Amino acid sequence: MQKDEVLRLFLDPDLVPPEKRVLLSNIADLAASLNMPCYAVGGFVRDLLLGKPVNDLDIVVEGDAIKLGNKLVEIYGGRLIPHFPFRTAIWQLPSTFDLQPSTLDLITARKETYDKPGALPTVAPATIEDDLRRRDFTINAMALRLDGEGLGEILDPLKGQTDLERRVIRALHPKSLLDDPTRIFRAIRYEGRYSFQMDSSTLEQINEETLKVLHSLSGERLRHEFDLILDEERFAVMMLRVAKLGILDAIHPKMPEFNQDYADFLEMDAQLDIQADRRTMGYMLWFMELAEADVILLANRLDFTNELTLAVWAAAQLKRGLVHLTDMRPSEWTYALEKLPLLSIYAVYLVSRENSLLSYISIWRHVKPFTTGNDLKARGLPPGPRFGEILLRLRAAWLDGEIANGSQEETLLDKLLAGQPWQGA
Ligand code: ATP
Questions:
Q1: Least reliable range by pLDDT among 102-106, 243-247, 324-328, 379-383
Q2: How many A from CA of 131 to the centre of ligand 1?
Q3: pLDDT tens across 77-97, in order?
Q4: Percentage above 70 pLDDT, the chain
Q5: CB distance 183 to 136 below 8 Å
Q6: Where does residue 322 rank: exposed (0-12), middle (13-18), buried (19+ CB within 10 A)?
Q7: What is the distance between the alpha carbons of residues 413 and 149, in angstroms, rounded to a whole number?
Q8: pLDDT tens string 178-202
Q9: Range with lowest mean pLDDT among 63-77, 291-305, 370-384, 409-423
Q10: Ligand 1 atom 28 nearest Cα
Q11: Which of 52, 147, 164, 283 is the most exposed place for a label (fewest CB within 10 A)?
Q12: Tell me: the pLDDT tens digits for 136-175?
């Protein structure tokens, strides 16, 4: 693409918000004063050339990114989180900037070599071109010069622009996916997001040998990749592709396919006052049909937090147990559901449309008797297990429609205190 066309895109406020553009110019000016050629790279350039709004700001300098970062903090404020082995830094922007995302990656141009597939790379400082050659796909291996006269020049040694036009995801060398199999997930995300396709030589890299290395990746790294897929609008297409390429089996033979019938539920607006975290929701829907023991197995494999494990396990358990609950009274439903995370109940409601689950979420869980522990004390009942029993019975009577107002509750309470038999739950 010609420089003036690139500049036109760069100056388009719908693609690069003016505050981001000004920030980039200021960084580039400072880098120039330190004799460091300065570039935007990766997703920024890819999305800009596609005419899509840019998101992350990744800056590469031929020079020391930590030194640049320290100067930026000195002038503009914020905080620098340096990573000395790679001479990279994350700049947490000062809150006055009010930019999203609120961090910016500052990278020292570097070369990478992999001593062993799947391991983390060994690095050395290098030129911008070397830095582009260590990246994943041609469409992510372009740089936009930001400083001085060079502003608007695109560096594209690996022909990323041609692949953008052809809508192709192409790895940079034949061992790329073997070196780092998380790139398979990245390729699938770009395929799904932009309706691109891996070229045949890249696709061929997803072979037995690569899947073996994928199998050895840590749960944390794998879960991070699934988290990113779940964040995507077209995640269902991506999950299907993950399954078709044999990735689920490679991770663990018990990994289920994502049930495509459940895909719409991830898109549903949060209703009923429930804060539905998209990722938690995604994992619950994905693992809902599994036996509880397999949920635990896979939660360990993917290094779920305890909270996520509990939410997914509860959803699977409830889905399985629904048949036993259908004829129960509202008080029994409530008693059974109260121990489970609300989000798990909501997820099972979405896929089952079981009305009692909706009643629980919207009504039953809020039902409480007027009587409190203090009232029982005032009536002379000595504190003890009877307290809980009586309050539970009063609540059950409300839930099951046996009482419907305060005076009926009083009558029932009198009977319970007098030790009379009661036919409620
Ligand atoms: P997205 O829109 O998905 O966030 P991105 O390009 O901004 O895309 P990042 O994960 O932020 O993706 O990475 C920034 C850049 O770093 C990528 O464009 C790519 O050039 C490089 N990169 C990231 N992960 C890898 C990897 N595993 N191997 C090689 N290069 C990578």
A1: 379-383
A2: 12
A3: 999 999 998 899 999 999 888
A4: 97
A5: yes
A6: middle
A7: 85
A8: 999 999 999 999 999 999 999 999 9
A9: 409-423
A10: 136
A11: 52
A12: 999 999 999 999 889 999 999 999 999 999 999 999 999 9
* Rounded-to-integer distance, Cα 183 and Cα 228, Å: 12
One-letter-per-residue 3-state SS of 188-203: HHHHHHHCCEECHHHH
- What is the atom index within ligand 1 of the atom nearest the CA of 58? 14
Ligand 1 atom closest to Cα of residue 186? 3
Distance, CA 328 to ligand 1 centroid (Å)?
A: 52
In the reported structure, the alpha carbon of residue 307 is separated from the centroid of ligand 1 by a whole-number distance in angstroms of 29
Q: Given the CA of residue 183, which atom of ligand 1 is nearest to it?
A: 27
Residue 424: is its pLDDT beyond 50?
A: no
pLDDT at 336: 93
- 43 touches ligand 1 (CB under 6 Å): yes
DSSP string, 49-118: HTT------EEEESS-HHHHHHHHHHHH--EEEEEGGGTEEEEE--GGG--SSSEEEEEE-EEEE-SSTT
Question: Does the domain spanning 1-166 belong to CATH 3.90.226.10?
Answer: no
* Residue type (1 letter), 351: V
Give residue for tokens 């690069």.
16
Pocket test of ligand 1: the residue of 107, 136, 158, 184 to mutate, having most ligand atoms within 8 Å of its CB, is: 136
Q: Same topology for domains 1-166 and 168-258, yes or no? A: no
Tokens of 16: 């690069």
Domain boundaries, the chain: 1-166, 168-258, 260-366, 373-418
Residue 56 Cβ contacting ligand 1 at under 6 Å: yes
Instruction: Say if ligand 1 is within 6 A of residue 259 CB.
Output: no
Residue 421's pLDDT is what? 52
Mean pLDDT across the chain: 92
What does the alpha-carbon distance between residue 38 and residue 27 come to, in Å, rounded to a whole number?
8
Identify the CATH assignment for 168-258 out of 3.90.950.10, 3.30.980.10, 1.10.110.30, 3.40.50.880: 1.10.110.30
> Distance, CA 197 to ligand 1 centroid (Å)?
17
Token pair in block for residue 76: 């503009």
Which residue lies with its CA nearest to atom 12 of ligand 1? 43
Q: Which of 50, 111, 130, 140 to mutate to test the pocket of ligand 1 (most atoms within 8 A of CB)?
A: 140
Task: Kindly state the tokens that stand for 333.
Answer: 């439903």
Q: Whose CA is nearest to atom 21 of ligand 1?
A: 135
State how far the Cα of 316 lies from the Cα of 246, in Å rounded to an integer: 24
